[in-house]
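Dear support,

I submitted the protein below through the web form. The confirmation email said the job was done, but the results page showed an empty box. After a refresh the structure appeared. I'm attaching both so you can tell me whether what I see now is the final result or a partial one.
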Amino acid sequence: MAKSNIWIILGIVAVLGALFYFKPFGTDIFAVTGSETMTRTLPTSVEKGATFAATYNIIGASGLFGVSVVDTVSGGCTPVGEHKFVIADDYQFVQSQSFTYTAPTTTGTCTFTGDYKFGSYPIKTFTTQTVNIICTPAWTT
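What the results page shows now:
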């Protein structure tokens, strides 16, 4: 009788261990594989003092995932919010996020440099991009 109890206990432990290892309750531990990437989309130019969007697109991620982003902007463009953010998908199928920036009131360029990281995988670097801040002339007749 004692041997059958041991086998029952070992069987329960094995089932519980499998449940925690494979996490079948919607937590999909294989959602992030390390091959995911992101792109940053910016306009090539904006008028001085105007607002514009920086859109971050996620490529190749599915299921539950999180990605942290650090973007540094030089040249006077200011974010409405922060430069550091996290995009997380809890099965709402979030594949992109946009943030608003304000161009300076003088002409020039704003340069975006940064990186991102999916889960515990290595940091990946965005391509450096510039936004030209232009002056639109006032036309008279």
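Response: this is the final, complete result; the empty box was a page-load delay. Residues 23-30 have pLDDT under 50 and may be disordered.
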